[in-house]
Amino acid sequence: MLVGIDASRSVADRPTGIETYSRQLIKALLDQQSPHQFRLYFRSRPPEGLFIGAQMRTIPFPRLWTHVRLAWEMAQAPPEMLFVPSHVVPPIHPRRTLVTVHDLGYLFFPEAHPWQQRTYLDLSTRWNVRAASHVLADSQATKTDLIDHYRIDPDRITVAYPGKDESLEPVDDPTVVQVVKATYDIEGDYFLFLGTLHPRKNLSRLVEAFKQFRSSDPESGVQLVLAGKSGWLCEDLVNQIRELDLGDCIKLPGYVAAEDKAALLSGAIGFLFPSLHEGFGLPVLEAQACGCPVITSTDSSLPEVAGDAALLVDPRDVHAIAGAMRRVVDDHDLQADLRERGLINVQRFSWESCARTVLHAMGTVLC
Fold first, then answer.
1. Rounded-to-integer distance, Cα 203 and Cα 209, Å
2. Exposed, middle or buried: residue 173 (CB in 10 Å: 0-12, 13-18, 19+)?
């Protein structure tokens, strides 16, 4: 069987969660022993050697690549099945189609998205789950959301947990950590957030919680590092930091290079991820893989992902977030316990396991 995969999102220069999912899953699928042949579709030529063992089809197009160019390709030379791991099913597609839906956060927190983006996300998700033969969800929480909000038959949805980044591990050399900290202008002890700076990440409450934490011990010198590329309404976050007079102790270093991530996570007192809604939450696994204690949210998929290896807090409760930060700083036994539990927890997740689940779903679709 020839299976086509929309690989257009897998070659981003600065990948975030969805792009990482696409790249890692495709590589894992190609590593599996499978009865299928794979054809990967790209908008621009992929780096040499990124994917091995598949047909490559680069089909440039200036705008509306999925809706026009990929759709035309499906009309002219369709594979027997199409898999869309991180985008929208083209209007023309094979009868057998598999798609991943990552989250429905735009329904739960509409104010965190411009109305145009919110409308597009809703319409594209409705289209995806109606057009596809079968749907993949990153978590049981997302599967439940799809059933509740789009009335999808549960038998048409398979949960395929994403995997951990195998390149991430604790960095024990303090010199390496110090060099990376210097690269991002970080001094002393720090809490770390790593992800797109977006309202859904709950950063406004996180900044308020950090203000409370600092007020309880102004001499501690602990900093807050909010690392990641700027998202919608990021300027509001910058203004809030300025108004709370926290500019000297909150760092905004921007996007973190992949080669620096492990050292930055390993050097942090704790990783803060009190997001309002996540379809999975890869950053939690990244932190745990580096032995960084995690404070995350009781909402959506995050308890499912973090397991018993994190402090869970109500993301709307600023006092709870601040209290969890204080616990991590003051209790060294708790720090050690969270590190150990985190390193065990991440072993539950692998791209190989994800690929096997996806291949099984493909087999269901092709039957």
1. 10
2. exposed
| Pairing mode of beta strands 55-58, 37-42 | parallel
Count H helices, E strands: the chain?
14, 13
Beta-bridged to residue 6, according to DSSP, are 41
In angstroms, the CA 355 to CA 166 distance is 15
Measured CA to CA, the distance from residue 177 to residue 167 in angstroms comes to 16
State whether residue 62 is helix, strand or coil: coil
Element (H, E) at 183: helix 174-183
Strands 2-6 and 81-84 come out as parallel
Instruction: Give the bridge partners for 312, in sequence order.
Output: 296
pTM: 0.91
Question: Under a CB-based contact definition with an 8 Å cutoff, are residues 129 and 168 in contact?
Answer: no
Half-sphere exposure of 260 (CA within 13 A, CB side): 17
Type of residue at 300: S
CA distance 100 to 246: 40
Query: Given a cut of 80, is residue 233 above it in pLDDT?
Result: no
Q: Which residues, in sequence order, are bridge partners of residue 192?
A: 225, 271
pLDDT at residue 302, as a whole number: 97
Give the model confidence (pLDDT) of 74-105 as tens digits. 999 999 999 999 989 999 999 999 999 999 98
DSSP secondary structure letter of residue 348: G
